[in-house]
Amino acid sequence: MMREVARAKIEAAIRESNCEAVTKVPREAVDAMIDSLDHIISVGMGPATKLMPTYRHRHESIKEFREGNFGWRGFFNALGETKELVGLLSVQGGGWRMIILLNESSDSVLASLLNFNA
């Protein structure tokens, strides 16, 4: 299922996040990521339990994906602990890419996978 979310809501969630991976991204890269977003963003929504096998498989079977991304422990912890729907969104800018796991209301970052691809 897809949910349309205002860019301002996603921006606030990213900027206010305490997620370890998100806090490692330089401010200018976060600015570039946010600037690249449309005013309305389609966010994929689904049960966290359905995402766990997909990302576990990617982690175990794709060496470049596993080693190229930071934040796996937090990402898996969030997927394992969350009982509600979660949103999944990829943003990039300034040489960085984040796969962001959002809570059901899309106003908080639960976890993120971070990749520097300069």
Automatic annotation (TrEMBL):
Annotated protein name in UniProt: Uncharacterized protein
State the organism's lineage: Bacteria, Bacillati, Actinomycetota, Actinomycetes, Kitasatosporales
